[in-house]
Design goal:
Helix content: under 10%
CATH class of the largest domain: Mainly Beta
Order of helices and strands: HEEEEEEEEEEEEHEEEEEE
Number of strands: 18
Number of helices: 2
Radius of gyration: 23 Å
CATH superfamily of the largest domain: Galactose-binding domain-like
Strand order of the largest sheet: 1-3-4-12-6-9
Length: 341
């Protein structure tokens, strides 16, 4: 069947890369498949690549954030938020978020008279029915737009489609820095709910960001699942763009990668505390020069330490130090490299 018979004309040119979301099917979880105690000043990236949790004002609620196999037909995984410490009266806000590079958004034509509408679609399930808010925030120009959706039936997978108008104000920077954020609100206090929901693009006003938001965090019996998240140009939600795992993983590795590094299995006689180095190339060029973190020493023979001595967009130098005057040197470590927005 011809492509034009499947996609609206405005979306034909993006075939193969329609979905601006990375890891929308919740396949990739390099950091962890489950993280506990999220909330209460523990925002950031914890589980499920490219998705972050953001909060403010030190809320007391906590939840377990995990990759779940509970998913609608056609999907293997979902993201699960399971409340473990309740907060009946909200303090601040909490939302699940994905951030986007400006250079990946130029097709939106934002800030021009030809600004494109975008459509968000996703599957959601929750034990807590009610109104939820999803927001697009323009970080370059301090603008935003919010829309509501309803969880109508508890513990039932529901498919949602939301179209956001194009914004004729505020051109997005064409670079590798953050330009947009997509926020799935889970809880908000009156600072963010006391105004009128900003259903059209406007300068950011906190009171208009999450009006009507249900407090998911008010009971430890509450949970919230999401998968099949797709954000695409146009006014029509097309079928979810499934990507093979290897493709999705490489997209994620632009922002975060966790790798086994190894040096040795050779007999050395240079003396104790001699450093041995090797270079490591990332499988994809990272968004920016990443930070590095030592995660775990897998094994070591005649080595007393390891370190990353150089890192840039494309790779790093891995160094181990001999602990003996002579012997067979071997060491393996896990290092993480982070260039998240």
């Amino acid at each position: 069947m011809a492509l034009s018979k499947i996609l609206p004309a405005s979306q034909e040119q993006y075939a193969g890369a329609r979905n601006l979301i990375i890891n929308g099917a919740m396949q990739v979880a390099q950091r962890s498949t489950s993280a506990t105690g999220i909330g209460n000043s523990d925002g950031g990236y914890h589980a499920l690549d490219r998705w972050a949790f953001r909060e403010t004002n030190t809320p007391s609620f906590e939840f377990t954030w995990s990759q779940s196999t509970d998913a609608p037909d056609g999907f293997g995984y979902s993201m699960k938020v399971d409340v473990t410490t309740a907060e009946v009266t909200p303090v601040g806000y909490g939302y699940i978020q994905q951030r986007f590079e400006g250079q990946n958004l130029q097709q939106l034509k934002k800030g021009t008279s030809n600004a494109e509408n975008v459509t968000l679609s996703f599957w959601v399930k929750s034990s807590k029915t009610g109104t939820y808010i999803v927001e697009i925030r323009d970080s370059d120009n301090s603008r935003h737009i919010s829309k509501s959706y309803s969880v109508s039936s508890s513990n039932t997978w529901e498919h949602k489609t939301i179209t956001f108008d194009g914004d004729t104000s505020g051109v997005l920077d064409n670079d590798n820095a953050e330009s947009l954020r997509l926020n799935f609100w889970l809880v908000a206090d009156t600072t963010f709910t006391s105004g009128t929901l900003a259903t059209s693009w406007a300068s950011i006003t906190n009171s208009n960001r999450a009006v009507g938001q249900t407090n998911l965090m008010d009971d430890t019996a509450n949970d919230w699942y999401i998968t099949g998240v797709q954000l695409e140009v146009g006014e029509t939600a097309t079928p979810f763009e499934h990507r093979i795992y290897a493709d999705e993983l490489r997209r994620c590795q632009r922002y975060y990668g966790r790798y086994y590094l190894h040096k040795g299995n050779e007999y050395m006689t240079h003396g104790a505390n001699i450093s041995l180095s090797s270079n490591f190339s990332f499988p994809v060029t990272m968004r920016a020069t990443p930070s590095s973190t030592h995660i775990q020493n897998i094994n070591a023979s005649n080595c007393n330490s390891s370190s990353i001595t150089f890192v840039d967009f494309d790779g790093a130098s891995y160094q181990v130090n001999m602990s003996v005057v002579s012997g067979t040197v071997s060491r393996r470590d896990i290092y993480a490299f982070d260039a998240e927005l």
